[in-house]
Amino acid sequence: MLNKNFIFIRIFILFAGLNDLTSGGFQGPIDGGYNSLTDAGTTTLYSLTAKWSEPYFDAMIQKNVTALVGKSAYLSCKVRNLGNKTVSWIRHRDVHILTVGSYTYTSDQRFQATYHKDTDDWTLQIKWAQKRDAGMYECQISTVPIRSFFVNLNVVVPTAAILGSPDLHVDKGSTINLTCAVKYSPEPPAYIFWYHHDEVISYDSTRGGVSVITEKGDVTTSYLLIQNADLADSGRYSCSPSNADVASVRVHVLNVRPVISGEHPEAMHTNSSISRHIDSNRTSIMVLLLWFSLVFSMYQRQLFFKCER
Fold first, then answer.
1. Which of 87, 158, 234, 253 is deepest in the core (most CB within 10 A)?
2. Which of 28 and 276 is assigned the larger pLDDT?
3. How far is it, in rounded angstroms, from Cα 137 to Cα 212?
4. Is residue 253 within 8 Å of residue 277, measured between CB atoms?
5. How far apart are CA 6 and CA 18, in angstroms?
């Protein structure tokens, strides 16, 4: 008869084995072909011990990495209990072995593997990342069978755009409000410069009324405000972030006619139309009266001639 301690150990092994199956761990038979419960428990315990001594990947590794074009990309692969095994990095696009251990096996010297002993991290660095570097990379452990961990690299090109471009029309005396949005950047730009034509806009110039507000986040937005717009403020304005291409807009300051007596332009337009309509009617009435006068004059002359006869 089994004692209580053995039953406890067997239950522990059973749950540990189930957990091992669900996590995709040790590969091999754990049931069937045993002469007794003691044999099964001993074999499973041996299997778990073997599994704990074998290399395995840290489950907390980041599986998706976004890098900025032209900058370095870092792909992490943490391996525990590596022992005498080796770690390799393979590019899936062309199934090319990039590194084995700390040695680089490609003519492209932008690729380099670095081992961090304190964290068991084998980091693949891709210098000056390009759009063609995007895709799936595989971190391999030289076990039998081979164990693999996959990291997807996304290389982005930040873009800047000014709302309302390519042309923006504002009235003289109003406020020019330009909004520059920087998208697809893994980190906010270090700075954003504004230009009028080819000169950097000075916020403390003698002109005054010029200010900039920048909000950083997933989409970094910079607002350029120019109060009391004048005709000299017309021209090309450019937004130049530190990590994206320049975006431009052409501003047209319109010299509109001032409003008289506080009337709205719509009212002025309506009154002008009514005036033209009245003037047209007056002209028609004058022509009609002149025609009646002419007819009446001719009738009087006919009567005069009849009387003389």
1. 87
2. 276
3. 42
4. no
5. 18
Give the model confidence (pLDDT) of 256-266 as tens digits: 765 555 555 54
pLDDT per residue as tens digits for the range 61-99? 899 999 988 889 999 999 999 999 999 999 999 999 999
Q: From CA 179, how far away is CA 84, in angstroms rounded?
A: 57
Please check whether residue 121 is in contact with residue 62, taking contact to mean a CB–CB distance below 8 angstroms: no
Per the CB < 8 A criterion, the answer to whether 92 and 75 are in contact is no
Strands 167-171 and 247-254: parallel
Structure token pair of residue 205: 């110039």
Integer Cα distance of 248 and 277 in angstroms:
46
- Tokens for 111, please give them: 């690729």
pLDDT of residue 64: 96
Q: Which residue in the block uniquely carries the two structure tokens 């007596």?
A: 261
Contact 180, 239 (CB under 8 A): yes
Predicted local confidence at residue 243, as pLDDT: 87
Q: Which of 49, 62, 60, 58 is nearest to 20 (CA)?
A: 49
Residue that is written with structure tokens 């304190």 in the block: 118
Q: What long-range pairs does 147-152 form, CB within 8 A, spacing at least 24? A: 147/55, 147/56, 147/57, 149/57, 149/61, 149/77, 150/63, 151/61, 151/62, 151/63, 151/64, 151/65, 151/75, 151/76, 151/77, 152/63, 152/64, 152/65
In sequence order, which ranges of the chain are alpha helices (DSSP H)? 4-22, 37-53, 265-308
* Residue 45 predicted with pLDDT over 60: no
Residues 235-247: what's their mean pLDDT? 95
Strand, coil or helix: 77? coil
**226 burial type by CB count under 10 A (0-12 exposed, 13-18 middle, 19+ buried):** buried
26 half-sphere exposure, CB direction, 13 A CA radius: 20
| Residues linked to residue 88 through DSSP beta bridges, in sequence order | 100, 140
Q: And the tokens for 264?
A: 């709205």
